[in-house]
């Protein structure tokens, strides 16, 4: 796939400018994103733990951890992958997707509070995968050729933000007024899990049957992990998860991730 010739993130700045020009100052539209704040740089104590099971500690040597990892993947002995270093990812996504994230087990979650967050400036809504920023921008520039999905999404954002402002003005607390916002409202959620659970997440959420919004994040996150640590995220793991097609799908449907400008890796 060719690299995009336009920095598509800039389109979201143009969308915000156009909204303000038309008097819509209560909300902004943003893309989903993620920050990897902690990820395995090596195998950690994985090999020591795994060889304890087979009493083969004497076979440890340079590169033996990678070979053993691939062998255990083939055998389906996934329990040992719990001894890999944990990974922590901070997602900025829509609340509908975050609801699916917290359904996973063996994870730790820290999410932006619905009770105490008061939107004093602009409410952020995450653009659905079915709408490109180009279409959203053209919808705002030319109302004579409205993209139906764009118009419906815009009306939803406008109605929800007005409802929230009115409820706050009427004396409701932020946690009460928050009830009128849609699942496309942005939220920040920090997810920490061991690698066995992350592999499970990738297997379920990057799959073609997963919700597309979550699939875009999961497939793009896996691609970044694979580039960052090809020893753990190797071809044997990719084959076991059957994920290469999903990575390609994510790139083709959300190419803003291609230039690595919607994710951050925090240095350890």
What labels describe this entry?
268 residues, two-stranded parallel sheet, five-stranded mixed sheet, alpha/beta, single chain
How would you describe this protein?
The protein is α/β, with parallel strands linked by helices. The chain is built from eleven helices and seven strands. The chain has helices at 8-21, 46-54, 64-75, 95-101, 133-141, 148-169, 174-177, 195-205, 212-228, 235-241, 244-253; strands spanning 27-30, 33-38, 87-94, 107-111, 123-126, 186-193, 263-265. The strands form two sheets. It has a five-stranded mixed β-sheet. A two-stranded parallel sheet has the order 1-5. It is elongated, with a radius of gyration of 21 Å. The two termini are 32 Å apart. The relative contact order is 0.19.
Q: Note the overall shape.
A: elongated
Give the distance, in angstroms, between the N- and C-terminal Cα atoms.
Answer: 32 Å
Mean pLDDT: 88
Number of helices: 11
Uncertain segments: 1-5, 259-268
Strand residues, percent: 5-15%
The level of helicity is: 40-55%
Number of strands: 7
Order of helices and strands: HEEHHEHEEHHHEHHHHE
What Rg is obtained from the alpha carbons, in whole angstroms?
21 Å
Give the biggest sheet. 5 strands, mixed
Structural class: alpha/beta
What strand order characterises the main sheet? 4-6-3-2-7
Offer a concise description of the structure:
This protein has helices spanning 8-21, 46-54, 64-75, 95-101, 133-141, 148-169, 174-177, 195-205, 212-228, 235-241, 244-253, and strands at 27-30, 33-38, 87-94, 107-111, 123-126, 186-193, 263-265.
